Amino acid sequence: MALSMNSVCVILLLTLSSASISVMAVLLYQIAGNSGLYGEAERVVSHMVSGPVRGNELVVVMEQESQVLVDVVRITAAAGASQTPALLTTQHSLLHTYHPVRHIKAPTTTAIIIFHNDPTPFFLNLSQNIDWNPTYLVLVCINPSLNLTSVLALPVVQRSMYILAFFPAEKAGRPRLHAYTSLPFIISPGGQSLVKASLGLWSPEKFPSRESVFPPRFQDFGGKVLEVSMVCYEEPFLYWDKKRNCVGSNLDALKIIGDKLNFKFTLTSPADVTWGSKENGTWNGMLGQLMYEGKHLSINVLQPSPDRAIEFDYTYPYWEDGFAIMISMPPPMPQWRNVLYPFSSLIWGLLAATTLTVASSLTFLLHQLYGLTDYVAMVLRIMGGLVNQPMEDREARAWWARVWLVFWWVAVDILAAAYMSNLVAVLTVPVYPSRINTVYELAHSSYIPSMGDYGDFAPHALKISENPTLALLGRRLYLQPIYDPDDFYGPLIKKVLAGTHAMMVTVDYLVYTYYNKDLTHDTYIMDERIFSSYMSWFLPRNTPYTGLLSRHVLRLVETGILHKLYRTHIGGLIGGKEEQVRGSGVLNLNHLQGAFIVLGLGMLTALFILMLERVI
């Protein structure tokens, strides 16, 4: 029930002692004339908190006058002891007192705002609080002279995913409350946006559940045209086709979602053709367009870094990416050493030591046991197994010696086969010295780490990193100015090919560039990645349909459609190009000069021995 007249007078004396007598008189007159309306408001709100929104986190906000007109004690009692409002406050207190974000922005937060006076000034001030965004918003207007449509049209009101508004009405001479929601993208037959869409007169029977009082507001965008900010230089997600149309897997995904939700979109690029970073307190690029120019969405490859996550909404991640680094291939090793490359230095050393040990040990035992006299001949015959030279069994008649030789021949056959097989590859594939493959090696090398200056978060994140290697990389990082939007990385690729710079770009774009620019012969991509993360689409902060759009993006990921779109576009871009590291396939003197050098050294050695024999 509404408060009695005596109670009202007492409250007025206590709370409005500074008000003029004329203002109090007007308020008393309103109470006397609308006591039935205020009682109806109490009943409706009490039913809401005890029924459809029971279990939600409640935030009840009342202005000074509505506290007098509506019995908040009755409302809180209806909520039950287990559901006392998490926050019961006045408009003034909500504006000037810090409240935990969990109380004003959570998946089940239900804010009930009861007002008698025009709440526009309150909402305009509340819009400064970027954390204010209750999932469920209930507006209870208890003054039939107010314009509810103008209140619902306020941007801060439109932040909420679900909106329910009550406005005074009458039926059969009895005060009632009419329920409304807001469908700003739906156009009425008269050509007006349904900012105030009727749900009908309130009754507990008509609105028994949460779903009935909070119908979806954006299941149908009504043909709304969303303005998409993009930079069409992120293959295969966004890129220009031969007809100079922006295409890509992300655009295809947006078209699928648009067909489902009934919206269209236009594409706009920022004047500075950058992704977006915060400089001197101001966002630039695509994120600047979302923040200051009223754009609705950005679908480029953007990571939800901490500074972006604070000031923007973003969808469920649709792709995993990070930054990879491309470096020029080091000059190949001298080809005259090809005959040595099949084995490492360690293997060559072990082979030499094993051969000498086996040959000398067997020769020594044969001498001691059987009086072998030609030591050199026996050592040479045993070593001949390395080059598949046969040995007569009568030269080692003892069975233990033959077993010894059998296992030696098996071992050298395996080594010889391995050498010959690897030699074939070495003769046709250039052999390179060890390459840089870790961030630590790059940070301490002579290469200059570089990025295109397109407004990404990575340069700043590297500089402030607590990891000393990343911090060093950030201090040494060179940002290449973007002179030609149609060739973002042309100048930087030239510096990479010159062997002075290392280029850091997102993984997928770098792989595309690696194949599309035919860089497989002259460069390689490091194994280690930097800032591996998930990619999301970005929207302005507190966009009410972020959750809905996110669920549709997630659905495309779960069904594999997004990956299929990606494979289609990347396949069309690199079109069967594969990494080629082979030579021409024809062996020339450069490939085989090592064999001739060995032959020449052998002949010179033989001549030297011949001279020694003549002298001796």
State the low-pLDDT regions, or none.
Answer: 1-33, 578-585
Structural class: alpha/beta
- Rg calc: 40 Å
Instruction: Kindly state the number of beta strands.
Output: 21
Briefly note the CATH topology name of one domain. Rossmann fold
The portion of residues assigned to helices is 40-55%
What is the level-2 CATH architecture name of one domain? 3-Layer(aba) Sandwich
- Biggest sheet layout: 10 strands, mixed
Portion of residues in beta strands equals 15-25%
Spatial shape: elongated
Mean pLDDT, to the nearest integer, reads 82
So what's the CATH class of one domain?
Alpha Beta
Give the helix tally: 24
Distance between the termini: 131 Å
What descriptors fit this protein?
disordered N terminus; 616 residues; 21 strands; 7-stranded mixed sheet; 10-stranded mixed sheet; 24 helices; Rossmann fold; alpha/beta
